[in-house]
Amino acid sequence: MLARAVVLLGERPWIEVVATSSFLETDPVGYLEQPAFLNAAVAVETSLSPTEILATLLDIERELGRTREGPRFGPRTIDLDLLLVPGVTIDEPGLTLPHPRLHERAFALEPLAELDPLLVVPGQGPVRELLDALRPLDD
Question: How many domains in the chain?
């Protein structure tokens, strides 16, 4: 399903997919009684505003059968998030950039670091440093 979402994103005439990370299987967070998640990051080039990008992601979710029923963080067919737009911060109803919990989520930082380890999360720091801070030190 995640691979299909990347294809659908790239089929939008106003969005160019320029890179896709590896797909990473991770344990669920929050609501634990569900299967593992599949995570990835996609870098795009577009002239769309962040609000328009988010609307596009929500359209793709609906196209793939996503509904908003069930518990928060519970099982779902697909979950596409706009994590950040380099150099942009937004805090308005329905959209916060960077994603407000991005710096706390290794499952999102790891694919981002694969695409660009020097990428900076505004107000938090480089994704590689954020990811390293979340991992326990090896003995």
Answer: 1
Has 101 been annotated as catalytic?
no
The single residue of 12, 66, 116, 128 carrying the catalytic annotation is 66
Active site residue 139: no
Give the pLDDT band (50/70/90) at residue 71.
low
Q: Which residue has the tokens 């694919």?
A: 111
Find all residues with CB under 8 Å of 95, minimum gap 6, and list them.
Answer: 50, 51, 54, 82
79 is a catalytic site residue: yes
pTM (whole model) above 0.90:
no
Residue 105 counted as domain residue: yes
Write the pLDDT tens digit of every residue in 74-88: 566 788 999 999 889
Give the integer Cα–Cα distance in Å for 115 and 109. 10
Given 12, 76, 116, 128, the catalytic residue: 76
Provide the residue range defining the domain that includes 58: 2-134
Which secondary-structure segment (H or E) carries 95?
strand 95-97
76 is catalytic: yes
Maximum distance among all alpha carbons in the chain? 50
Residue 74: predicted pLDDT: 57
